[in-house]
């Protein structure tokens, strides 16, 4: 089933939560985000291959290696982000997208708009972070 949504459509609080239009909106948003990340990854890979030259100067070589290391760490973070995007797409398919994993309550549209891969409501996320901080301080 394919739902058509206007380019300027934004989910609103006065609509039924996670109706077909909202699910399609977030599905498209997630797919565009994933495509952007993959495009950047391809460009980085090309850049790293082009940059794979011998630098006669030790300082240039060290600088190049540092840049490469930073790029690879960024790509690793993005690889993890793609896994989260894929998980969100699966939640859209199974109908659990937009609902807090802890409480089962709807996650606010504002939060989903800002962080479409969110799995916790703001309140549950804050509780989670407080617990993390307590354990980290031990």
Automatic annotation (TrEMBL):
Question: Residues in domain Zinc finger DksA/TraR C4-type?
Answer: 95-130
Alphabetized, the UniProt keywords read: Cytoplasm, Metal-binding, Zinc, Zinc-finger
* Cell compartments where the protein resides: Cytoplasm
Q: Where is this region: Disordered?
A: 47-68
| Annotated zinc fingers (dksA C4-type), start-end | 100-124
Q: Where is the DnaK suppressor protein DksA N-terminal domain?
A: 22-92
What coarse category fits the chief subcellular location reported for this protein?
Answer: cytoplasm
Question: Family, per the entry?
Answer: Belongs to the DksA family.
What the protein does?
Transcription factor that acts by binding directly to the RNA polymerase (RNAP). Required for negative regulation of rRNA expression and positive regulation of several amino acid biosynthesis promoters.
How it assembles, according to the record, is:
Interacts directly with the RNA polymerase.
Kindly provide the name given to this protein in its UniProt entry.
RNA polymerase-binding transcription factor DksA
Give the species. Xanthobacter aminoxidans
